[in-house]
Write a structure and sequence with these properties.
Layout (H helix, E strand, L loop, with lengths): L1 H19 L5 H31 L3 H10 L3 H13 L3 H14 L5 H19 L9 H11 L5 H13 L12 H6 L19 E4 L7 E5 L1 H4 L3 E5 L5 E6 L6 E4 L7 E9 L2 E10 L2
Antiparallel strand pairs: 1-2, 2-5, 3-4, 3-6, 6-7
Helix pairs in contact: 1-2, 2-3, 4-5, 4-6, 5-6, 6-7, 6-8, 7-8
C-alpha cells in the first residue's frame, strides 16, 4: 500500500541522513538535522494513518503490530493507552517502559510525566475506581504533572478541571463529567489521546508544515466556532472565527517560529477539538 511504501522510504532516508550527519560541516549538519526532524514527523504521520486505517477496517491485529514494532515515542504512548482500555494492565506497564526507552532527550520530561500519569490510571483501573476517587497522594501527583511544561500536563489539567472544577488560562479538553462519574478508568472515556475527539469534523495539513497551513472544518456544524493556536509556552499566537461561507481557512506561518504548536476549536466557549502541528522551515 502507498503509505507502507512511504514509511519504508522515509525510514531509509532518515537512516541515511543520520549516518552522515556527524561527518559534515555545521551548516550542512543543520540542514540535515532539519530534514531528519521532518522525516521523523512524516513517519509518525504515516504510521498514524496506517494504524487508523487498520483499526477502522477491523484489522486490530495489524494495527497493534505496527505499534508494537515501532520505535516511535508517540506510538508507544498510544499502545499503552490501548492496553489500558483493554484492561491489560501488565502489557500497559510494559509499554510504559518502552515510552521511557524511546523518548529522545527533548521528550524525557514528558515521558516521565506520562509514565507517572498512566501509572495512576492503571492503579485506579485495577481497583475499579474512577478519577473522582483519587487518593490525596494521587491528586498531588496529578497536580505536579499539571504544573509541568509537557504534553502530558494537558491531560493532568483535564483531570483537575473535571474532578475539582478548576479553571486554567490554557484551554484543555474537559472530560464529560457525567459520563466519567459512571465509567471506570479503563473505558475509552479517559484516554489521554484527546486528539481524536471529533476528528472526523476537522483536518489540518500539511503537518509538519514549512509554509502556509490549511485548516478544514465542517462549516455546517461549526460556523461561529473559534480556532486558537498556542505555542509551546502557552502564548496565544493565532485566533480566527470560522464562518459558514467556506469549509477551510489558510493560516500563514511566516511569523511563527519552528516548533510544536497546540490548537483548539471552541464552540460556545467549550473546546470540541484539540491537536498539534509542527513547523519546520
Amino acid at each position: 500500500m502507498v503509505w507502507l511504501y512511504g514509511i519504508n522510504h522515509a525510514n531509509q532516508t532518515n537512516q541515511l541522513c543520520k549516518s552522515v550527519v556527524q561527518t559534515i560541516g555545521v551548516s550542512a549538519r543543520e540542514t540535515l538535522e532539519k530534514e531528519i526532524a521532518y522525516n521523523e514527523a512524516q513517519i509518525n504521520q504515516l504510521n498514524n494513518f496506517a494504524v487508523d486505517y487498520y483499526f477502522t477496517n477491523g484489522d486490530s491485529a495489524q494495527a497493534m503490530s505496527i505499534l508494537i514494532t515501532s520505535d516511535n515515542y508517540e506510538d508507544k504512548k498510544l499502545l499503552s493507552e490501548i492496553y489500558l482500555s483493554n484492561n491489560d494492565y501488565a502489557a500497559c506497564a510494559d509499554a510504559l517502559v518502552e515510552v521511557l526507552n524511546t523518548a529522545e532527550s527533548e521528550k524525557v520530561e514528558d515521558a516521565v510525566a506520562y509514565y507517572e500519569y498512566m501509572t495512576i490510571l492503571i492503579n485506579l483501573a485495577e481497583q475499579n475506581k474512577t478519577i473522582f476517587e483519587l487518593t490525596q497522594e494521587q491528586e498531588q501527583a496529578i497536580r505536579t504533572i499539571a504544573s509541568g511544561n509537557t504534553a502530558t500536563a494537558f491531560s493532568a489539567l483535564a483531570v483537575l478541571e473535571t474532578v475539582f472544577d478548576e479553571q486554567f488560562e490554557y484551554p484543555v479538553l474537559k472530560f464529560n463529567t457525567a459520563t466519567v462519574r459512571s465509567l471506570k478508568v479503563n473505558n475509552n472515556t479517559l484516554s489521554t489521546n484527546n486528539v481524536y475527539y471529533n476528528s472526523n469534523e476537522f483536518n489540518l495539513y500539511p503537518n509538519p508544515a514549512s509554509d502556509n497551513i490549511v485548516f478544514e472544518y465542517n462549516a455546517s456544524n461549526y460556523a461561529g466556532s473559534i480556532i486558537e493556536i498556542y505555542d509551546n509556552i502557552s502564548r496565544k499566537v493565532f485566533e480566527h472565527t470560522l464562518t459558514g461561507n467556506d469549509n477551510k481557512i489558510v493560516i500563514k506561518t511566516k511569523e511563527l517560529e519552528n516548533g510544536v504548536y497546540h490548537y483548539v476549536v471552541k464552540d460556545n466557549n467549550v473546546i470540541v477539538y484539540q491537536n498539534q502541528f509542527v513547523i519546520i522551515k
